[in-house]
């Protein structure tokens, strides 16, 4: 059936049609950003836009792919890069000003949702049946996350044991800030973490 086809990861990369000029500019910035270009050129990473795999009939009931998607929120579908072995995940996205708590500052609950889903998409890839539920999520808010900016979520799977998988990650600005930043072992400036999280995911007993 035509309607039952679930797009492949590769197909999701060409499915988004920006509805307006602002969305087009945001999409272009994300897909051509040096970090995206670097990961795209590394065969150990797989690129996708998983929100576009969700059928329209279900999308309206999905929090991140439906409710939180659109102008002022997740203006364009986030771009994901997953390490093929399930060890790491990088997500590039833009957050608008319609998901604020305090004016101009992204709501902490929105950031928690992005981290919950982001860490899950990282850990699930390392689990036997590629599916699980969140058993624990710990969030540390380090500094205010301003609305209307490009962000990057970085996650890594830290441990897999039977039906359990642990992951940790954080969100930082995709752009280089003006403040002085420490340099890591690779000679790159380290951006300050805006919010960080750790989580435990458990695969349902009858998952296949």
Question: Describe it for me?
Answer:
Strands 1-2-3-5-6-7-4 form a seven-stranded antiparallel beta sheet, with helices on both faces. The chain has 208 residues and is an alpha+beta fold. The protein is globular and about 45 Å long. It has six helices and seven strands, in the order H-H-H-E-H-H-E-E-H-E-E-E-E. The chain is 23% helix and 27% strand.
Percent helix range: 10-25%
Mean pLDDT: 90
Count of β-strands = 7
* Helix segment tally: 6
Biggest sheet statistics: 7 strands, antiparallel
H/E element sequence: HHHEHHEEHEEEE
Task: Summarize the entry for a quick read.
By secondary structure, the protein is α+β, with helices and mostly antiparallel strands.
Please name the defining characteristics of this protein.
single chain; alpha+beta; 7-stranded antiparallel beta sheet; 208 residues
Describe the protein's topology.
Blueprint: H1 9-12, H2 21-31, H3 34-40, E1 45-48, H4 56-59, H5 63-67, E2 79-83, E3 88-95, H6 108-124, E4 133-141, E5 149-161, E6 164-173, E7 195-202
């Amino acid at each position: 059936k035509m309607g039952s086809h679930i797009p492949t990861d590769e197909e999701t990369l060409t499915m988004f049609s920006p509805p307006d000029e602002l969305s087009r500019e945001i999409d272009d910035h994300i897909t051509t950003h040096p970090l995206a270009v670097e990961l795209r050129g590394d065969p150990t990473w797989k690129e996708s836009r998983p929100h576009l795999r969700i059928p329209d009939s279900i999308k309206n009931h999905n929090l991140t792919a439906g409710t939180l998607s659109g102008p002022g929120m997740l203006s364009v579908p986030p771009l994901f890069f997953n390490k093929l072995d399930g060890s790491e995940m990088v997500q590039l996205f833009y957050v608008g000003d319609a998901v604020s708590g305090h004016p101009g500052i992204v709501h902490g609950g929105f950031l928690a949702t992005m981290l919950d889903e982001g860490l899950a998409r990282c850990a699930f890839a390392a689990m036997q049946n590629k599916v699980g539920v969140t058993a624990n999520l710990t969030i540390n808010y380090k500094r205010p996350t301003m609305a209307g900016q490009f962000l990057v979520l970085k996650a890594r799977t830290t441990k897999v044991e039977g039906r359990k998988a642990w992951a940790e990650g954080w969100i930082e600005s995709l752009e280089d800030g003006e403040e002085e930043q420490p340099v890591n072992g690779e000679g790159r400036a380290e951006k300050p973490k805006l919010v960080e999280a750790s989580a435990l995911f458990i695969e349902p007993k009858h998952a296949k």
